[in-house]
Amino acid sequence: MSKKAKILIVEDNRELLKILRMQLRDEGYAVVGAEDGVQAVTLARQDRPDVILLDLGLPAGDGFTVIKRLAKFPHANEIPIIVITGQPKEAYEQEAIEAGVVAYLAKPFKTEQLLAAIRETLGESNSLVETITNKDETAS
After folding, report:
1. Number of domains the chain is built from
2. Mode of pairing for the β-strands spanning 103-106 and 81-85
3. What are 71-130's pLDDT values in tens digits?
4. Phi and psi angles of residue 58, each rounded to the nearest 5 degrees, phi first
5. What's the domain range around 135?
């Protein structure tokens, strides 16, 4: 990766936020974190990340509120969003897709799934399936 892609993680679980930060930094990404909806919108506008990882269940504005707020701002409305949530896919995936998110990962997800979604979103891989398959083959 020529320039470090910047990822904004929006997660109110501090332990998970810390783990995700470490994992993504280990992969060479620049990482910023937010613990609520207001902070998420502010950081997205200021830092202009390349991707946002967004939990849906947040204090101070849930994930859908964050998506709606970001849609009102130039540049922020163009940032791809990957939902990471404890909500089952059946509950909110369709609504999230209609809101414009690029991927929906229900917790608990595997690190490989998250990395594949990020790489796919950033255009760093040819396909999500290929990335996951390659990871699985190298682990065998």
Report:
1. 1
2. parallel
3. 999 889 999 999 999 987 888 999 999 999 999 999 999 999 999 999 999 998 654 444
4. -130, 150
5. 6-139
Residue 26: which CATH number? 3.40.50.2300
User: Which residues lie across from 10 on neighbouring strands?
Assistant: 34, 54
CA-based nearest residue to 10, from 25, 46, 51? 51
Q: Which amino acid is at 20?
A: L
Q: What is the pLDDT of residues 42-82, one digit of tens each?
A: 999 999 999 999 999 998 889 999 999 999 998 899 999 99
> Would 125 be classed as within a structural domain?
yes
- The reported pTM is 0.85
CA dist., res. 8 & res. 77, Å (int): 14
